[in-house]
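Researcher: Here's a chain I'd like modeled. Treat it as a single chain, no partners, no ligands.
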Amino acid sequence: MADLIIQGSYLICALAFAGLAGLALMTRTRSRQFFWLVMASLATVIWALIIWGDDAAAWTINPTLTIWLEVARSLAWIVFLIVITGLSRRGAESWVKQGVAFGLIVPLALLGYVTVADLLLVEGLSGHSHFFLSGLSRLTLSILGLFLLENLFRNADIDQRWATKYLCIGLGLVFAYEFFFYAEAVIFNRMSEGLFDARGYVIAFAAPLIAISVSRAKYWTINLHVSRTMVFHTAAVMGTGIYLLAISAAGYYVAQIGGDAGSVFQTVFLSLAIVLLVSLFASGSLRARLRGFISDNFYSVKYDYREEWLRFIGTLSASEEDQSLNQRIVTAIASIFESTAALLWVLDARGEAFHPEVSWNFEGDIDSLEMDHALVGLFVEDPSIRQVSKDDTQTASFATINDRPVSFLVPLIHEGILQGILALGQPRANRDFGHEDQQLLETVSQQAASYIAEARAAAALSQVQKLEEFNERFAFIAHDMKNIVNQLSIMVQNARVHGENPEFQKDMINTVANSVARMKSMMADLTAVRERSSEAPLERVQMSPVALDEILRQVADDWQKLHANMKVDLPEETMLAQVDEKKLRTALGHILQNAWDAVGEKGAVSFHGETRDQQAILDISDDGPGMSREFIQNIFFQPFKSTKKGGYGIGGFQIRQLVREMGGKLDVHSEPGQGTTVRVTLPLTLVEMKAPAEKAS
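Model: Modeled as a single isolated chain. Structure tokens:
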């Protein structure tokens, strides 16, 4: 059973790609892309059938022919990718064409040399060398295939990516598996039977994925653009491959020299070599040198500005959970120029000094820079980037900070104001600071300065908002205190007449106790922090239903004790509403106080309530002088505008805000000489009818 599964691996592969070729032939499109798709599929079918027949002992094939068939299969797919990416057309980047051609010529030359040497029986080409060179050739082709696939996917637009993504996944699986398979083979000088037997199944997986792209093939034509990142990664992979190949060859000779203990020496040698490789690629200096080499030799400009800008903005715009804004600025700029250290001074809120906010790899304490400091004066006089040099009299004194070398001094300027100063340490690799570096550093420093200025403005605005909120709460409390004082004053006046009455004394004690409780609550509100967003300045809190009818009767009773002639007409049924009892009492108290202030002791004030359409409608009316419509619109609800002597001008504004916070509505109806009615409408959560209480007989 196991033999059948292994033998079926390449047969399944052949059938899968035969189906793919048939699907491509059935399409109406007859382009070069489809021609090479059919050729590559048929080449895969022939290669898979040859290996299947050889494993099943149906025939015997020369190993060299099998290798050439595999190379032909890989070449067909690579040519197919070359056609899709447009490298076969005029206008493609010449050096890219040359690189692809080199990637094709080298493996063919290596394999050709091995084949000719075998035919001519050249002495000196051992079995190990034969295996090594043939494996290297196929490893190189897999790297070239991955290179083309990466750029195919990277340069596709939305429609093209929709069509080609499954092609990239399928062929990416093929070439990645081949790379791993042959890398393992050349390093350890052996072919893994498990990887070999499973290869047919793995490659077969690619056929249905490519078939999906065949159905979307009208978007296949893509112009190739080789990214710096891909060139860097390709160079890293190529370098890794060459290194591993050299190490594997050296390991082979170590094993030969070691005699009986050769396998031990070989294992130790390869382990140390891999550790050395990992250490090299973990080196920032090595990566910096490689990037510099690629920029200098493969591109006409030094930076991929789109990529650098997107990475820079992405870093600055990241969340503040891990790093502050100033830390992100240092990280973003230092990474562009491969700096090994950075130091950022930022102007304080008062504009009196620059304080060190971020110190990366600058050991020891860093002093603040006062406005008369030489470095500040240098940038105030000439706000341009300075490359530090001991030969420059202006920057020589800043060549080192705490014994750490400094390469650049960068002013962060926004709208003509020096927001900060950035000192960059030496880059990981020696580099020339040219015009492109100057322009890029100026651009990112200006953007960083704008972020610092914006953050400072946001902080200042936040402080102003907090102070404004505090002042608003304090104004509300002052107004509430005035009403409490008025109520206590009335109580004192009444005490001269009713002071000997025990019932009056009891009511007076209750009134004083309630006043004290309200004042304590107001002081607690003054110190509480209430967060309000600019989009929703009115805070709405989900509250539990309360008995609205009981609260209204208590408020009415309290005011009738102060003004016995106040008329009260409230509904008898139970009313439940989601309101804040304290806010409701405060709002109604302000309305009643305003009404009595308007009419005086001889006037008339009524407190009427009713339920309608699941709403409680509360009307407080007076027969005072009334108000004009213009006064209500322009003055009554505006804070700090008052026509009362000693008034704060905050009452109408506070009443409306309190009612809105409870989800209610406030309306004022008034005409000059006809009194005023203030209506408060509150939504009810549940209305239960209760029979009126029976009168005592």
